[in-house]
Structure formats: structure tokens, C-alpha cells
């Protein structure tokens, strides 16, 4: 019966559906497949059929299902899984029907033509698509309908769906393993009977009987249990490259066909026991690898489990239990001692110690009181709290962490790409060696040529080589997340081992960013209290960190003078009119003052009217207690240390002196910071940048690797490659130590996997290693690599 060209299913004999594709009339099984194929051709994407490695999905969604997609445009539906950042919305979709890289190519090329689509990335490994779009020009339902139009079903990704897919994969492996294990034991029993012929005489009819029983027992294992290897091999061949599944499949199919030939024609030896044991060991190795990688990467999905399902909502008359995901900004919730916070919010009433280890990696609880910000997933350890919700759950800190970690997993570091290419070349060389081994033994011992070649293919399969890098990187990423460092891009660990310069912003990075007023010096006719009152009135209109130093304490009842004609001058200060007099407060250079005349060191802000300088306010920005440890550690490691700051005051010099940095570059603009970093790059230096402010965003984006402080601006965090969740600079030292350990582990994995192959190759080629031992050794080699990588999780 003819197969449908699109989905591969049989075409009914009464069917009349067909379509001309590149000059050839292709049969279709139904109008749905025909419509999908027509859509693919209309979009100019006929190349999909040339590069696909598996059939497409059957037909389109029925009209009723398409109409139901419009429900996803409702705001109350989208709030659970859509991130809204103003003009752009972002979503992760689970895509059903992805079978190969060609599917991802087809989806991306088809959807990219949509007006309003800003970004699309389809991951065939996770079966997920990340999409950004402009809601003013495009609706979510239209995006989902475009998926359906080319035969794929897409719906919002949720953690429980991921868990279900993982459970399905584990269940599939368990079934295949169970069949291979039980079958191989039965085949081994038959093999014992066959081997008895070496010691005692066994009648011919019994030998034939045991061979046929072994064939019957081995066939389900070859068809069902070994299926993943065949699929992987076929995909890689269709894509024009070699994978480890190619050599495995060649060995399995060759051995089985030869044994079947020997059984049917009753000539030669059979190795059903070796084949079935080989499949069992391979599946066991992959199953344990799946479990190990799952454990290493499950930290992000575990974050979602830390948020409680229910919350206690405080209503106007009574309290009631509601689903945590339905909480809105402004709702008030009660969190009892020992309970987990259901949402990000501000404490309205109460004081308690909060365990924030799931966000920061710091296991000691922190005291949080009225007015403090608290986060979903953290634990209230000792007293009831009343909290006003500040962010919906999909916009919470924990949701941001999950999204950023998913983005980091999209990146594949250069060392991982190198390992993939190395394994492909290794397989090609291996196939040539296997051909040479077969040729040699064919002329010397023809009856052993096939089995020795089989042992060569099995023993030297580069599974361990392909696992050497990804397992180590996954384990290291999980370790960093637990310790309070969130990687947004995958190359950070590699750069940490190569960097020779660390560049740091000053305010908010090396210092706490909490500027305080430490002294007031009067230079005019007004007294200190009057000058301070004017300064506070002017600075009350600003959100600049320096302005906070002039704010009155919460319990103060002082009345500030009224200000009119307020004009902020960005980068310099503020002007305003009080009681008819025009005042200015700001930097010395802006006011035309000789700074050195009035102050020797430190940060100073000046107040003046139109005729005279009135006062000098000396400010102090507290140095972080861990800043000196960071500088000392990196200098001891041989890195050049630089402070790169927009602060042109003497305080920058003082901090540079206290910390003992190698270089201070002060008073630079955001463009100047980026230019400095580019200059270092031109000299061949590899730099790490740490910052927190909006003015650091360009240099954070331009550095080889960059870290943003958790307390920094959103723009800085979005520009950085990693985020220090605990605002603890010592974590950066730990990150570099872990990066060096990761590189060491990867080198160990490479040495082991390559050394193992070089060791067993001559043994197998000389006929000293039977196929079943080769299979056991190859699986053991892979497990050693995975176990070695898991050391990074400790």
C-alpha cells in the first residue's frame, strides 16, 4: 500500500488526494495532510521534505480546536504563562510532533513571516519553542494557529507538562530495559546449552532448537528495545553527519543478521547472547545517564515546586484559601510561621526571620520587618506576616530565575561544540579502522572476521566522549544555581577560566550603594540647619541614590520648605526656587567650584544660590565587607583588577587605595566604559565585568563575561551573562573555583574516554575482546564519565 508523502501513513485505495512537489506528484492520505503540504509549498519551504529525518504530523486541527485557540488571547488566561514587558510579550510553548532539526527549521521559517513576531527559537531536544511578539500587531492565538497550519500542535509550557514528558520517557526506558534484561537472561540460558557442545556431545536437533528459541527471544529486543539507537542513527545519516548511534546500529544489525543467517541455514556461529546483552548494557547506560542529567538539571524545575499551591487571602470581612497563581497585585495575604510565601510582596504587618536560601544560596535566615520586600518560595521561619502582593506569580523573582535558566540552556559553549565535532570525526575514523580490521581477518580467519569487527565497533563507540562535556556543564550550572549564581548564558564558565582582567563598577558593586551624609560645612551666610533643610527639600524630588542620603528619618516630623520650578540636570544636580530664591545643589564642576579648595577627599555635594556657595555636604558610601576579599583573591590568581566608575570624585581614589586595585578609571560615561573594555580586548585581554546600574548595561553586554548584582537595575541584569542572587561578591570567587574544577573534570573525562578507546581498540582488533565484554566496557566507560561529572554537584 502506498504511504502518504507527508505523514507516512497508508493511503486508502479509494483516496484521491495528491499534490505536486518539485515536479513529482506525491500521494496524500487525507485532505488535512494535503492542506499542510500546500501551506508548506506556499511559504516556499519545500526544502523541509528534503532534510526531514522522520514523517510529519498527520493533518491539521479540526475547526473546533482552532476556534478554541482564541481563548489564549484572554488576559486572565495569559497571566499564568505569558511575560509582559511593555511592547513585547514572551512565552514558552510545548510543541508536539517535533521529530528532527528539519521540523524546527520549518516552524521557524514559517512563523518568522508573521508581522509582529520579534523572536522565535525552537529546541528539538526539549520540544519547546520560545517566542516573543508585539501584542499590538499579533495575537497569541494567531501564533498557535500558524503552528497548526503546518501540522504541529503548540500550547503553553508548564512545569507539570515537563514532568509528565520526563515520566513518559523514563517509563519507555523501563519497558525497553525490562524486555532486554529478561530476554537476555533467557537467551543466555539457551547459550549455556549451546556452549555445552564444547565439552560434551549434544544432538544436532537440540542445537538447532536452541538457536531458533534464541532467535525468537532476541527478535523483540532488536525490534523494540534497540529502537532508540536505530532512530538516532537514521536521523544523523539523513542530516549528513555521523553519531555514536551509527556505529551501535551497524554492530547490532550486522550481528543479528549474521546470527539469523546461521540459524536459518544451520551454518556458522550465533551470538544472540552477545547482542541482547549489548542492548541491555547500552540501555542501562543511557537510562542512568538520563537520570543523572535529570538530577543535575532539575534545580530550575524544583524552584517551581517551592511555591505553595494555596494562599490565605485577607478579604474585607474574612480570610479564605485561594489558588496562589490567582493572586493579583495589591492583594493582602497572611503567611503563618513555618509556611512558604506564595508571592512576591511587601510586609504590611509583622516582623520575622525569612529563609531565602532557595534564592540566594545563603542558609542563614534574614530578619525582615514592615516595609521590606520578600519573595515567593522563601520560608517564614518564626512569626506570622501580613504581605501585600507586589508582583503576580509569573512576574515574581522565582519565575524570572526559571526563565533566565531556560535561556542559558539554549546556549551551547564552544567546548561542547568541539566535543560534538570530535566525536563525529572519531566515528568516521573508527569506521575506517573497522573496515581495515575486517579486511585483515577475512584473509586470515574468515569465520572470526565479522565478530572481531563487531567487537571493534562496540568497544570503541564514543558514547563517553560525547558525554564528557555536557554532563559536566550541566552539573556545574546546577551547583551555581544552588549557591546563588544564576547563569543566563552558557559561556560564562569557560570565560572564568581564561580571564586575565576583572573590571568592577564602584557604586552599588564594590560599595553598598547606600550613601549617607556624614558632615556639613557652611561657606555662606546661612547656618547648617537651614542649608540642610534647603538641600533636603530639593533632593526630595529626586530618586538618585545620592538624594536618599538627604531624606528625613521615617519618625521625623520636620517640615521642609516648599519648592517650585524644580529642574533635574541629569549627571549634575537639581535646581529649584525656595521663597523666591534660586538654589542649585550638585557637583563641584557643575557649580564651577574648585573642589580641592573645600575638601581633600571623599564624595561631596555643594549647595549654592545665584550669588554664593552656601554649604558642602560630605557623603560616604560604605564599602562592601566582601570587596577586599574579592580583590585580594583575584590578584592572587594573577588577574589584573580595575575599578571603572562614573564617579569622578576623590572617593573613587580612596576606595581604590583601600582595596589596592591595579588600575582606577573614574569619571567615565557609559560609552567611555564600553570603549575602555574594547581597548582591553584589542590588547588581547579577556575581561570579566561586574556592575549594577543602568549606566553599566552597555559594558555588561559588551564584556566577554559579565555579572550583575541582584539588587541592581533590571536593565543591568538583562544585559549581564550571570546574576549574583545574594549580592555577595565572594560567590564570584567560588564561581571561578568551580569553573576551574569543571575544566579539570572535562579534561579528565576526555582523557578517560579517549584513553579507554585507545586501550581497548588493539584488544578488540586482535580478537582478545568478545562482543559482550566490549558492550559492558563501553557502558561502564560512559557511566564513569557521568559519575565523574556528578562530583561537581557536591
From TrEMBL:
<dbReference type="GO" id="GO:0005507">
    <property type="term" value="F:copper ion binding"/>
</dbReference>
<dbReference type="InterPro" id="IPR018303">
    <property type="entry name" value="ATPase_P-typ_P_site"/>
</dbReference>
<keyword id="KW-0813">Transport</keyword>
<feature type="transmembrane region" description="Helical">
    <location>
        <begin position="745"/>
        <end position="765"/>
    </location>
</feature>
<dbReference type="Pfam" id="PF00403">
    <property type="entry name" value="HMA"/>
</dbReference>
<dbReference type="InterPro" id="IPR036412">
    <property type="entry name" value="HAD-like_sf"/>
</dbReference>
<dbReference type="InterPro" id="IPR027256">
    <property type="entry name" value="P-typ_ATPase_IB"/>
</dbReference>
<dbReference type="Pfam" id="PF00122">
    <property type="entry name" value="E1-E2_ATPase"/>
</dbReference>
<dbReference type="InterPro" id="IPR008250">
    <property type="entry name" value="ATPase_P-typ_transduc_dom_A_sf"/>
</dbReference>
<feature type="transmembrane region" description="Helical">
    <location>
        <begin position="449"/>
        <end position="473"/>
    </location>
</feature>
<keyword id="KW-0406">Ion transport</keyword>
<dbReference type="InterPro" id="IPR023214">
    <property type="entry name" value="HAD_sf"/>
</dbReference>
<dbReference type="InterPro" id="IPR023299">
    <property type="entry name" value="ATPase_P-typ_cyto_dom_N"/>
</dbReference>
<protein>
    <submittedName>
        <fullName>ATPase P</fullName>
    </submittedName>
</protein>
<keyword id="KW-1278">Translocase</keyword>
<dbReference type="Pfam" id="PF12156">
    <property type="entry name" value="ATPase-cat_bd"/>
</dbReference>
<dbReference type="InterPro" id="IPR006121">
    <property type="entry name" value="HMA_dom"/>
</dbReference>
<keyword id="KW-1133">Transmembrane helix</keyword>
<comment type="similarity">
    <text>Belongs to the cation transport ATPase (P-type) (TC 3.A.3) family. Type IB subfamily.</text>
</comment>
<dbReference type="InterPro" id="IPR059000">
    <property type="entry name" value="ATPase_P-type_domA"/>
</dbReference>
<dbReference type="GO" id="GO:0055070">
    <property type="term" value="P:copper ion homeostasis"/>
</dbReference>
<dbReference type="InterPro" id="IPR021993">
    <property type="entry name" value="ATPase-cat-bd"/>
</dbReference>
<dbReference type="GO" id="GO:0016887">
    <property type="term" value="F:ATP hydrolysis activity"/>
</dbReference>
<keyword id="KW-0597">Phosphoprotein</keyword>
<feature type="transmembrane region" description="Helical">
    <location>
        <begin position="242"/>
        <end position="264"/>
    </location>
</feature>
<keyword id="KW-1003">Cell membrane</keyword>
<keyword id="KW-0479">Metal-binding</keyword>
<feature type="transmembrane region" description="Helical">
    <location>
        <begin position="208"/>
        <end position="230"/>
    </location>
</feature>
<keyword id="KW-0547">Nucleotide-binding</keyword>
<dbReference type="GO" id="GO:0005524">
    <property type="term" value="F:ATP binding"/>
</dbReference>
<dbReference type="GO" id="GO:0005886">
    <property type="term" value="C:plasma membrane"/>
</dbReference>
<dbReference type="InterPro" id="IPR023298">
    <property type="entry name" value="ATPase_P-typ_TM_dom_sf"/>
</dbReference>
<dbReference type="Pfam" id="PF00702">
    <property type="entry name" value="Hydrolase"/>
</dbReference>
<feature type="domain" description="HMA">
    <location>
        <begin position="89"/>
        <end position="155"/>
    </location>
</feature>
<feature type="transmembrane region" description="Helical">
    <location>
        <begin position="270"/>
        <end position="288"/>
    </location>
</feature>
<keyword id="KW-0067">ATP-binding</keyword>
<dbReference type="InterPro" id="IPR001757">
    <property type="entry name" value="P_typ_ATPase"/>
</dbReference>
<feature type="transmembrane region" description="Helical">
    <location>
        <begin position="177"/>
        <end position="196"/>
    </location>
</feature>
<feature type="transmembrane region" description="Helical">
    <location>
        <begin position="426"/>
        <end position="443"/>
    </location>
</feature>
<dbReference type="GO" id="GO:0043682">
    <property type="term" value="F:P-type divalent copper transporter activity"/>
</dbReference>
<keyword id="KW-0460">Magnesium</keyword>
<dbReference type="InterPro" id="IPR036163">
    <property type="entry name" value="HMA_dom_sf"/>
</dbReference>
Amino acid at each position: 500500500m502506498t504511504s502518504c508523502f507527508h505523514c507516512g501513513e497508508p493511503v486508502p485505495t479509494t483516496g484521491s488526494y495528491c499534490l505536486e512537489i518539485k515536479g513529482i506528484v506525491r500521494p496524500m492520505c487525507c485532505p488535512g495532510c494535503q492542506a499542510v503540504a500546500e501551506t508548506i509549498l506556499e511559504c516556499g519551504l519545500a526544502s523541509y521534505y528534503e532534510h526531514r529525518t522522520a514523517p510529519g504530523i498527520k493533518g491539521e486541527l479540526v475547526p473546533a480546536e482552532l476556534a478554541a485557540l482564541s481563548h489564549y488571547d484572554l488576559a486572565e488566561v495569559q497571566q499564568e504563562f505569558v511575560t509582559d514587558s511593555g511592547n513585547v510579550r514572551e512565552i514558552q510553548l510545548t510543541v508536539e510532533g517535533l521529530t528532527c532539526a528539519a521540523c524546527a527549521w520549518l516552524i521557524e521559517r514559517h512563523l518568522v513571516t508573521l508581522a509582529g513576531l520579534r523572536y522565535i527559537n525552537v529546541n528539538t531536544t526539549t520540544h519547546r519553542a520560545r517566542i516573543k511578539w508585539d501584542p499590538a500587531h499579533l495575537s497569541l492565538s494567531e501564533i498557535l494557529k500558524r503552528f497548526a497550519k503546518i501540522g504541529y500542535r503548540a500550547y503553553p509550557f508548564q512545569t507539570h507538562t515537563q514532568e509528565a514528558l520526563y515520566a513518559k520517557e523514563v517509563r519507555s526506558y523501563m519497558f525497553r530495559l525490562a524486555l532486554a534484561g529478561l530476554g537476555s537472561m533467557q537467551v543466555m540460558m539457551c547459550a549455556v546449552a549451546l556452549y555445552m557442545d564444547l565439552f560434551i556431545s549434544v544432538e544436532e536437533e537440540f542445537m538447532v532448537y536452541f538457536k531458533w528459541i534464541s532467535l525468537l527471544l532476541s527478535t523483540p529486543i532488536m525490534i523494540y528495545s534497540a529502537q532508540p539507537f536505530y532512530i538516532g542513527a537514521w536521523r544523523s545519516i539523513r542530516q549528513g553527519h555521523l553519531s555514536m548511534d551509527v556505529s551501535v546500529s551497524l554492530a547490532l544489525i550486522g550481528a543479528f543478521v549474521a546470527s539469523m543467517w546461521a540459524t536459518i541455514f544451520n551454518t556458522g556461529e550465533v551470538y544472540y547472547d552477545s547482542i541482547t546483552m549489548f542492548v541491555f548494557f547500552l540501555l542501562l547506560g543511557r537510562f542512568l545517564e538520563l537520570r543523572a542529567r535529570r538530577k543535575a538539571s532539575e534545580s530550575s524545575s524544583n524552584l517551581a515546586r517551592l511555591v505553595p499551591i494555596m494562599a490565605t487571602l485577607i478579604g474585607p470581612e474574612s480570610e479564605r484559601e485561594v489558588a496562589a497563581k490567582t493572586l493579583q497585585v495589591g492583594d493582602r495575604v497572611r503567611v503563618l510561621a513555618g509556611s512558604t510565601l506564595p508571592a512576591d510582596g511587601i510586609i504590611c504587618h509583622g516582623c520575622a526571620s525569612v529563609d531565602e536560601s532557595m534564592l540566594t544560596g545563603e542558609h542563614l535566615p534574614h530578619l525582615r520587618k514592615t516595609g521590606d520586600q520578600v519573595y515567593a518560595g522563601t520560608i517564614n521561619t518564626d512569626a506570622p506576616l501580613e504581605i501585600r502582593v507586589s508582583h503576580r506569580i509569573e512576574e515574581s523573582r522565582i519565575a524570572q530565575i526559571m526563565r533566565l535558566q531556560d535561556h542559558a540552556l539554549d546556549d551551547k559553549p564552544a567546548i561542547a561544540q568541539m566535543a560534538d565535532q570530535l566525536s563525529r570525526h572519531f566515528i568516521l575514523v573508527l569506521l575506517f579502522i573497522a573496515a581495515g580490521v575486517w579486511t585483515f581477518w577475512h584473509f586470515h580467519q574468515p569465520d572470526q572476521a565479522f565478530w572481531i569487527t563487531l567487537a571493534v565497533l562496540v568497544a570503541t563507540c564514543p558514547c563517553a566522549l560525547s558525554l564528557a562535556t555536557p554532563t559536566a556543564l550541566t552539573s556545574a550550572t546546577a551547583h551555581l544555581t544552588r549557591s546563588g549564581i544564576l547563569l543566563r548564558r552558557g559561556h560564562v564558565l569557560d570565560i572564568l577560566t581564561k580571564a586575565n582582567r576583572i573590571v568592577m563598577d564602584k557604586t552599588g558593586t564594590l560599595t553598598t550603594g547606600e550613601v549617607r551624609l556624614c558632615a556639613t560645612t557652611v561657606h555662606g551666610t546661612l547656618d547648617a540647619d537651614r542649608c540642610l533643610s534647603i538641600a533636603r527639600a530639593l533632593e526630595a524630588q529626586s530618586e538618585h541614590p545620592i538624594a536618599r542620603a538627604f531624606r528625613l528619618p521615617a519618625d521625623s516630623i520636620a517640615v521642609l520648605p516648599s519648592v517650585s520650578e524644580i529642574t533635574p540636570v541629569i549627571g549634575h544636580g537639581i535646581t529649584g526656587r525656595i521663597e523666591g530664591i534660586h538654589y542649585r545643589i550638585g557637583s563641584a564642576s557643575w557649580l564651577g567650584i574648585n573642589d580641592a579648595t573645600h575638601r581633600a577627599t571623599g564624595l561631596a555635594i555643594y549647595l549654592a544660590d545665584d550669588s554664593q556657595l552656601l554649604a558642602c555636604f560630605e557623603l560616604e558610601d560604605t564599602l562592601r565587607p566582601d570587596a577586599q576579599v574579592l580583590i585580594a583573591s583575584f590578584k592572587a590568581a594573577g588577574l589584573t583588577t580595575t575599578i571603572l566608575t562614573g564617579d569622578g570624585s576623590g572617593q573613587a581614589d580612596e576606595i581604590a587605595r583601600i582595596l589596592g586595585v591595579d588600575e582606577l578609571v573614574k569619571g567615565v560615561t557609559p560609552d567611555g566604559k564600553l570603549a575602555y573594555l574594547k581597548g582591553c580586548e584589542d590588547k588581547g585581554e579577556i575581561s570579566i565585568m561586574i556592575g549594577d546600574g543602568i549606566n553599566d548595561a552597555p559594558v555588561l553586554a559588551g564584556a566577554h563575561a559579565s555579572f550583575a548584582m541582584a539588587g541592581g537595575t533590571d536593565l543591568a541584569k538583562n544585559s549581564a551573562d550571570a546574576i549574583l542572587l545574594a549580592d555577595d561578591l565572594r560567590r564570584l570567587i567560588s564561581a571561578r573555583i568551580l569553573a576551574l574544577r569543571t575544566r579539570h573534570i572535562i579534561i579528565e573525562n576526555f582523557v578517560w574516554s579517549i584513553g579507554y578507546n585507545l586501550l581497548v581498540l588493539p584488544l578488540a582488533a586482535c580478537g582478545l575482546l568478545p562482543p559482550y565484554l566490549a558492550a559492558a566496557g563501553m557502558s561502564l566507560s560512559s557511566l564513569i564519565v557521568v559519575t565523574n561529572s556528578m562530583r561537581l554537584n557536591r
